[in-house]
Amino acid sequence: MTNRIAQLRRDRGLSQAQLAEALEITRQTVISLESGRYNASLPLAHKIARYFSLTIEEVFLFDEEG
């Protein structure tokens, strides 16, 4: 699974720390999400999508072959 978190964050002029604070997670979690080392739980994915006013499918891109 890949995601557009880094792109969405940059498009809005947010730092990783600012996004982490808004989502009530650590900056390290944001870094791990953006790099693909960590996949968000469903509640976190929902929170991220809501924050950007998008659907989960617009933020997270699922690999059909996985």
Task: Give an overview of the whole structure.
The protein is mainly α. The protein is built from five helices and two strands; from the N terminus they run βαααααβ. It has a two-stranded antiparallel ribbon with strand order 1-2. Helix 2 (16-23) packs across helix 3. The N and C termini lie close together (8 Å). The mean pLDDT is 95.
Summary of the model, kept short:
With 66 residues, the protein is mainly alpha-helical. It contains 5 helices and 2 strands.
Keywords:
single chain; two-stranded antiparallel ribbon; 2 strands; 66 residues; 5 helices; globular; mainly alpha; 6% strand
- The ordered string of helix (H) and strand (E) elements is EHHHHHE
Q: Which strands sit side by side, in order, in the main sheet?
A: 1-2
Strand content: 5-15%
Report the uncertain regions: none
Main sheet specs = 2 strands, antiparallel
Secondary-structure-derived class? mainly alpha
Mean pLDDT over the full residue set: 95
CA-atom Rg in angstroms: 11 Å
Number of strands: 2
CA-based shape: globular
**Number of H- or I-type helical stretches:** 5
- Report the helical percentage: 55-70%
The termini sit apart by: 8 Å
